């Protein structure tokens, strides 16, 4: 699959009053860039861990920017869990890539929401807010790409959105992180079991993004190309919106093999190994 990005998106987005307000750009990044998400790394899935380490040693070396759009880990109990063997291995591998000159960006997903500055330092990467607008290169012609984990777009799932608001509340996070690490890990394990049961019970449509939520996000950011994960439904979608055409790429989850989206400034291309 490959696709030219939409025409250069404007740097100015319409403000509420109808005028133009500057849209903050989260970051500048160099090309070529790779986008990955939803690896769900855990000790239980050694094939996926091996695929990720192989990806960092291989295909990733050809890029200059790597964007990890959430759910890199199956769970992240807090940055005081950096000594867990898996976490240490993954951070060391990312850091080695960063030391070689790669710029690595990480946006938290719902599974690794608590990965913060401690993780960023250990892995040699830069944290991104969700959503994040990235300009590749310099000048007004440089392409803009909007990045998100994607769970915020699943607005049909009201119970999930209520949960999402709770766990993104700084007070809730502070209270949670104040508990001992072992207590947090036990709590997360219980939540994962409940989440698997809840997912099985829910209609599939509820788990996908909501079209109006996508439209609102694209509109608010000047009709860029959007890349997100979370739904585990890899695809390329076109949205015709307010006379604009936007492309939305949905990243694949991993399941034992590496899969990524590449961007060279002209074309997007989905690959796996
Ligand atoms: Mn997710």
Provide structural commentary:
The chain is α/β, with parallel strands linked by helices. It has one domain: Metallo-dependent phosphatases (Purple Acid Phosphatase, chain A, domain 2, 4-Layer Sandwich), CATH 3.60.21. The protein is 32% helix and 24% strand. A seven-stranded mixed β-sheet has the order 1-15-14-5-6-7-8, with helices on one face. Strands 4-9-10-11-13-12 form a six-stranded mixed β-sheet, covered by helices on one side. It has a two-stranded antiparallel ribbon with strand order 2-3. The chain is globular. Bound molecules: manganese (II) ion. The site of manganese (II) ion has 8 residues, from loops.
Going across the biggest sheet, name each strand in turn: 1-15-14-5-6-7-8
Which architecture per CATH? 4-Layer Sandwich
Which ligands does the model contain, each kind named once?
Answer: manganese (II) ion
Low-pLDDT parts are 1-22
* SS field, number of helical segments: 8
Find the structural class using helix and strand composition: alpha/beta
Whole-number mean pLDDT: 89
User: Major β-sheet, in short?
Assistant: 7 strands, mixed
For the record, give the distance between the C-alpha atoms at the N and C termini, rounded to a whole number. 15 Å
Residue share in β-strands: 15-25%
Radius of gyration, taken over Cα atoms and rounded to an integer in Å? 18 Å
Regarding quaternary structure, how should these chains be classified?
A: single chain
Instruction: Tell me how many strands there are.
Output: 15
CATH topology: Purple Acid Phosphatase, chain A, domain 2
| CATH class division | Alpha Beta
SSE run: EEEEEHEHEHEEEHHHHHEEEEE
Number of structural domains? 1
């Amino acid at each position: 699959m490959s696709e030219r990005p939409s025409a250069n998106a404007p740097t100015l987005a319409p403000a509420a009053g109808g005028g133009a307000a500057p849209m903050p750009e989260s970051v500048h990044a160099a090309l070529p860039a790779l986008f990955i998400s939803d690896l769900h790394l855990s000790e239980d899935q050694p094939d996926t861990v091996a695929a990720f380490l192989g990806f960092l040693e291989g295909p990733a070396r050809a890029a200059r920017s790597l964007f990890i759009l959430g759910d890199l880990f199956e769970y992240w109990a807090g940055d005081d869990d950096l000594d867990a063997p898996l976490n240490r291995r993954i951070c060391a591998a990312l850091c080695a890539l960063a030391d070689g000159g790669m710029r690595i960006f990480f946006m938290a997903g719902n599974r690794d929401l608590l990965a913060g500055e401690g993780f960023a330092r250990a892995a040699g990467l830069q944290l991104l807010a969700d959503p994040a607008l990235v300009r590749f290169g310099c000048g007004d012609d440089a392409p803009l790409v909007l990045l998100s984990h994607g769970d915020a777009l699943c607005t049909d799932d009201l119970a999930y959105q209520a949960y999402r608001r709770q766990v993104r509340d700084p007070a809730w996070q502070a209270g949670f992180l104040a508990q001992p690490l072992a207590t947090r890990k036990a709590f997360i394990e219980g939540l994962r079991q409940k989440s698997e049961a809840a997912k099985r019970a829910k209609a599939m449509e509820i788990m996908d993004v909501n079209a109006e939520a996508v439209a609102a996000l694209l509109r608010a950011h000047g009709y860029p190309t959007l890349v997100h994960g979370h739904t585990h439904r890899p695809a390329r979608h076109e949205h015709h919106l307010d006379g604009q055409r936007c492309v939305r790429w949905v990243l694949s989850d991993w399941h034992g093999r590496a899969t990524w989206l590449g961007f060279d400034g002209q074309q997007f291309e989905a690959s796996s190994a």
